Predict the structure.
Amino acid sequence: MKNLLSLINLSVLFFFGNGMISAQNAPDSNINLALLSDATITSNVVNGRGTPQEILFNPAIGNYESVTQYNEHGVAYNQNLGLATRGNGLNWQVEWPSSKNINYITFGGTYPNQPQPNTNWTISYYDGSTWITLDQGTGGWINSGIYEWGGESRQPIQATKLLLEIYSDGVHDLISIHLRGRGGISSQVDDSSSTKKACLIQYLPSNGSDTQAPTVPTLSSTGQTETTVDLSWSEATDNVGVVGYKIFKDGILEGTLGNVSTYQVTGLTASTTYSFTATATDAAGNESTSSNAVSVTTDGNSGGSSGNAIWQEANSVASYAGKVQVGGISVPSAYKMAIDGKLIAEEVRVEVSGTWPDYVFEKAYPLLSLKEIQKHIEEKGHLPKMPSAKEVKANGIELGEMNRLLLEKIEELTLYIIQLESEINQLKSKH
């Protein structure tokens, strides 16, 4: 019977595709979203204490998903990571292929004999396009406590990744850092009396049956061309969480959207006035009433003339909602501006979002041997991690990423030179 039910569940997921999100992510206090079959748990700690999965509490069974000696994960006892910066301390992450609604999160801090009063921590999530900081601080729960965020009344976030980063405050070394499960019974510790269970990522249902509609979003227009209108709206709120919005054009449904706050209406007629409204829908299926009506008149021409509405000015800054091409007639997909020709500037600043290559000088960095590099060059015709001439010709280069790669290679060369000098000095000492 159990196998038959499992087969039915798999059939439902197969036939409804994206409906899997609802099947696995409806409000349910018995589900730890980090234990779903499509969840991937990772950590940057290797050869440390436990696996990153061992800290997870399973509310469906009232204990840890897998019982181990201490149900903990982190670096070895007394291991010193020094003044580890953010991203280089202990990183624990859960990832799903589809977005999950989350309104409750807990993490378990360290054991009392391994205090962390000065340790920094940041919890962030990825909404599908942007990393957003959910919470951060120093000490507190990580120092032998339990972190708790949200609850039944919290409007859920929507995330495809949830990341916990633990790192030094820049003054005190990061020593013995680890996470631990709470509220269960490991083979060595009975912590079942703890009312807060950890570690949990959940979508909790609201108290009682929900019939309350979400608040009404406030709709506004942020720009228009001859054939498009950009709309935005305030985030609606609801006790079980808003899951989507609907946009209406002249009273007719224009688009059914997920939990986003902007939408571009296309295919309009120039010099025409349209009326737009919006509604919000919650996880229980309740829909708010229509928002304020926004009347928008599309532009009547395509460029350059005085007073054209597609150009706007604020605080002495001119802005344009569309794409810009200089020396050509098209802009590649996913880009805002393209220049067919040369560009001169006194200074160009590139914001780099990734990790800067100082990680090369860390003891755990996997520095390839010169023989391995020689083999890679003979097989590939270029250095490891570097793009080939064919790739650069086809795709160009990203300045920030290329500078990061070049610095990585320079730092690796520095390590090779240091190694060679050491070998040369050893040879000299023998003669």
